Amino acid sequence: MKKTLLLLSSALLLSFSVQAGGDVAAGKTKSTRCASCHGADGKISIPTYPNLAGQNEVYLSNALNAYKNGERTGGMAVVMVGYVRSLSDQDIADLAAYYASLGEK
Question: Does the record bear rRNA-binding in its keywords (predicted)?
Answer without folding.
Answer: no
